[in-house]
Amino acid sequence: MAAPRAARSNNEVDNPSSLVLRFGPDKPLRLDAGTLLSPFQIAYQTYGVLNDARSNAILVCHALTGDQHVANTNPVTGKPGWWEVLIGPGKIIDTDRFFVICSNVIGGCLGSTGPASTNPATGKPYGLDLPVITIRDMVRAQQMLVDHFGIEKLFCVLGGSMGGMQVLQWASSYPERVFSALPIATGARHSSQNIAFHEVGRQAVMADPDWHGGKYFEHGKRPEKGLAVARMAAHITYLSEAALHRKFGRNLQDREALTFGFDADFQIESYLRHQGMTFVDRFDANSYLYMTRSMDYFDLAADHGGRLADAFAGTKTRFCLVSFTSDWLFPTEESRSIVHALNAAGASVSFVEIETDRGHDAFLLDEPELFAAIKGFIGSAARARGLNA
Amino acid sequence: MSVNGSQRVDLEVVANLIPPQSRVLDVGSGDGSLLELLQETKQIDGRGLELSQRGVNECVARGLSVIQGDADKDLEFYPDKGFDFVVLSQTLQATRNPKLVLDELLRIGNHAIVSFPNFGHWRVRLSLFVKGRMPVTKDLPYSWYDTPNIHFCTIRDFVNLCEELGATVEKATALDASGQKIGLSMPWWFWNFFGQQAVFLLRR
Fold first, then answer.
1. Which end of chain B is more exposed for a tag (fewer CB within 10 A), N or C?
2. How do residues B30-41 score in pLDDT, each as one tens digit?
3. Quick one: which of B113, B104, B122 has its CA closest to B191?
4. Chain A residues near residue B64 by CB distance under 8 angstroms
5. Does residue A96 sit in helix, strand or coil?
6. Contacts of residue A346 in chain B, CB cutoff 8 Å?
7. d(CA A22, CA A81)
8. Is A168 a residue whose pLDDT tops 60?
């Protein structure tokens, strides 16, 4: 591809710097859209060592705009891994003890097959020719990756937000392969309000003339303005009114007085613009459409005749759910309805609601109570699994 | 949700009623003391339901399987006979609808274990009789206007409720002020007078 900056959002799409597992025509990925994806690839990172019994593996599922670089410096942004506060040697999820796997989801843009990947049939990026990907498709692909390691049962599957949806899907689709599940700040379905916010984001991308019906690579363009606006709108939903006001208030940005214009007078405006601009440097616009769609389509109860408890019937998996008081994207009630379903299914379940004003993004931050809950849950699950420190 | 000052003198009595490896739901699991005791000594499969978020978070951090919830609202989500034992320790008198809660315990568990402070205890009677005021004791330390204990009952009241709900009393124990068991052969009226705490093992 010529013109690297315009051609791809980053250089990690077809030949990423992380590990890659490629599946040929003999191993297609069955998609909920009703087609087969083949060939396809999964980009992933691992940390720690798989033990002889293959019983110490933890699968981490990333959120909407996350990636496989959970506990190492991100090759695109140069920033620390997105959950490095939690995962690493001697940390709460101790990579001296556990074998941690994190893969880029199908539909993503950091090395797993997604809309920016080259379509082998045309030699051009898929764009919108890639079928719509669901959370279940992502999990089906992850399962093939787990098979590759010869791991029959994961010790734990954990993740927040869209990652939490994958955790729930794992526990529902492959209960015998999940010893413990830790879905954080998530829901068993995407609410109408959440679909609404995603639609605003998608419309912003598609309204950008540089989007070109999804074929922007072929025009040497990228819909940066649209994607930045999408990110700005979404970012608001990750925070809380209280946290925004605490951080920015009505403070002015590098000026003494209002300018009576439409520059970023307020710090919050400047902050959001910055969030939007940095996002487009690392993320593919079409991938954003696919990721948001996958969350919108997620409805675990609907797959089980409308009864969420049936999604977990007979499960032996140990669950721990976590929500945050100021999260209005996935409010506590979403977690509580999952807890009730798990109760009805007779499952082993813990549920912690954490008091914080940091909103949905709290799951990515240094929240001592979150860490204490994860530590307690993982510790007791490890004892039950016979994994001694 | 364990709301009284008497830091659960009944714990050991309750624990002794539960055979090893049982499936146990502790309703109002508080700081998790009973669940922890049972896991260590009886290797039970234990779950907890606790009203206070702080209590829940502490329990989970200690590796216990506990969820935040309300005995009045959240028991309906548990399946019939999902547990061998459902324990309600020092919590019945703080529920809004004790009859419904007890009914739910009997539905969810093959056995229910209920412990509660006896409002028929002679000190309580004396306080009301002599002082003419709602009793405030070491074990029931709240004033009437701020007490979480909104549905006190006596041992006799409780026995009546069990009959009304068709529950069989498999075992009952009364504890005196020092947590000692009161002799088994004593009649109900004696327990109702001298028992400060009561522990019932029920089935339906």
1. C
2. 999 999 999 999
3. B122
4. 350, 376, 380
5. coil
6. 78-79, 82
7. 24
8. yes
pTM above 0.90, yes or no: yes
Query: What is the predicted pLDDT for the residue at B192?
Result: 87
- Can you give the pLDDT at residue B136? 83
Helix (H) or strand (E) holding A236: helix A224-238
Among A348, A369, A375, the residue with its CB nearest the CB of B65 is: A348
Residue of B13 and A130 predicted with greater confidence: A130
Query: Are A360 and B44 spatial neighbours (Cβ–Cβ below 8 Å)?
Result: no
- N-terminal to C-terminal alpha carbon distance within chain B: 25
Contact yes or no for A351 and B56 at CB 8 A: yes
- CATH 1.10.443.10: does it fit domain A194-293? no
Which DSSP state fits A84?
Answer: T
Q: Which of A182, A307, A348, A352 to mutate to test the interface with B (most CBs of B within 10 A)?
A: A352
The answer to whether residue B8 scores a pLDDT higher than 90 is no
Per-residue CA distances from A138 to A108, A116, A174, B147 (Å): 10, 16, 13, 52
- Report the residue of chain B nearest A368, measured CA to CA: B61
Contact between B151 and B186 (Cβ < 8 Å)? no
**Which residues of A lie inside 8 Å of B (Cβ-Cβ)?**
318, 320, 339-341, 343-346, 348-355, 369, 372-373, 375-377, 379-380, 383
- The whole-number pLDDT of residue A242 equals 95
Quick check: is A67 catalytic? no
Superfamily of domain A4-191+304-384: Alpha/Beta hydrolase fold, catalytic domain (3.40.50.1820)
Residue type for position A218? E
- Binary contact (A376, B79; C-beta < 8 A): no
Q: CB–CB of B61 and A372 under 8 A?
A: yes
Q: Is the pLDDT of residue A1 over 70?
A: no
Q: Which of A137, A296, A327, A361 is catalytic?
A: A327
Do the chains contact at A349 and B57, CB–CB below 8 Å? Answer: no
| Domains, in order of start, for chain B | 11-203 (3.40.50.150)
How do residues A256-275 score in pLDDT, each as one tens digit?
999 999 999 999 999 999 99
Range of lowest pLDDT (A18-22, A139-143, A214-218, B136-140): B136-140
Domain ranges for chain A? 4-191+304-384, 194-293
In DSSP terms, A118 is beta-bridged to A125
Q: What is the pLDDT of residue B188?
A: 83
The pLDDT value given to residue B3? 44
- Amino acid letter for position A53: A
Residue A360 is a catalytic residue:
yes
Contact A380 B64 (CB under 8 A): yes
pLDDT at B2: 42
Which of A140-149, B155-164, B182-191 comes out lowest in average pLDDT?
B182-191
Contact call for residues B124 and B135 (beta carbons, < 8 A):
yes
Of B45, B66, B74, which is closest to A350 when you measure between CB atoms?
B66
Q: What is the pLDDT of residue A389?
A: 62
